[in-house]
Amino acid sequence: MPSKDPRRHVNRLKQVRFFDRFTRDRERIPPGQFVTRKFPVLTYGETPEISPDAWQLEVFGAVEQPLTLDWQALQALPRKTVRVDIHCVTRWSIMGTEWEGVPFQAIVERVKPHPDARFVMQYAYGGYTTNVPLEDLLREDVLLAYRLEGQPIPVAHGGPVRMLVPHLYFWKSAKWIKGLEFMTENRPGFWEQNGYHMHGDPWKEERFAGD
Ligand SMILES: Nc1nc2c(c(=O)[nH]1)N[C@H]1C(S)=C(S)[C@@H](COP(=O)(O)O)O[C@H]1N2
Ligand SMILES: [Mo]
User: Which of 16, 40, 51, 183 has its CA 20 to 30 Å from the CA of residue 111?
Assistant: First the structure.
C-alpha cells in the first residue's frame, strides 16, 4: 500500500535513485547548474493542502470556451507520461524525473484561444503566480501533472495538480495550480515582479530581467 502521508512520500522520493540522476552527460546540464540526487522542495510561503475533491481549475481570459475542470473531469482527459530533466534557477537540476498528467495541448484544444492570445498566467492556490508565453506551453512535454514517479504528487511538490513546463526554469511550473488565464499582453507573475526573467530559458541563463 502506498503511504497516505504526503511527507512520508517526499522522504521516499529522496531515496529513489535513477541511473539518470548520476548522469555524466554534460550536454544535458544547462550552464551554471549542478545535478542533485535529492528532490528539493522549493516553496515561497505556506503549503496549501487541497484535496482532490476540492481541487478546481479555471481556464479563462482570451479564449472562446472558458473551462472549469474538477478532479473527475481532469481524469477523463487524455493522459501522458514524460521523463524530463528539471532546472531550478537556484542552480540545482534533477535528471530524468517521471511525471504523468494531461497534456496542456488537450486544454488548448478545448478552450480555443483567441488568435491574439500570446501569454498565459498561471495562478496557484496560496497566491503564487507565474507568466509564460503560450508558445512555450504548446510543447509536447508540458503537462497539468498529477503523478510523480508513479505516485500521486506529494503535497509539498504541488499535489494534487501542478503545472510542468520542463524546458523553462522550474519557477515557471506552478504547484497547486488553480487558474490559467490566456492573455493578449504579457504581465509579470510573482517572481517576475521581483526581478526574475519574463521567459526563463535555462539554456540561455534567462535568470533575471535583463539577462
Ligand atoms: N505555487 C507555487 N508554485 C511554485 C513555487 C511556489 O513557491 N509556489 N516555487 C517554484 C519554484 S522556484 C520551484 S524551483 C519549483 C519547485 O518545485 P518542487 O518544490 O516540487 O521541487 O516550484 C515552483 N512552483
Ligand atoms: Mo526555483
Answer: 51
Give the residue extent of every domain in the chain. Answer: 1-30, 31-204
Q: Is any ligand 1 atom within 6 A of the Cβ of residue 172?
A: no
- Reading the chain (211 residues) residue by residue, the pLDDT tens digits are 444 555 556 556 654 555 555 566 788 999 999 998 889 999 999 999 999 999 999 999 999 999 999 999 999 999 999 999 999 999 999 999 999 999 999 999 999 999 999 999 999 999 999 999 999 999 999 999 999 999 999 999 999 999 999 999 999 999 999 999 999 999 999 999 999 999 999 999 999 999 9
CATH number of 31-204: 3.90.420.10
pTM of the model: 0.93
Residue 152 DSSP symbol = E
Query: Does 169 contact ligand 1 (Cβ within 6 A)?
Result: no
In one letter, which amino acid is 182?
Answer: F
As residues whose CB is below 5 A from the ion ligand 2, the structure lists 42, 88, 170-171
74 lines ligand 1 (CB under 6 A): no
- Do residues 107 and 144 make contact, with C-beta atoms less than 8 angstroms apart? yes
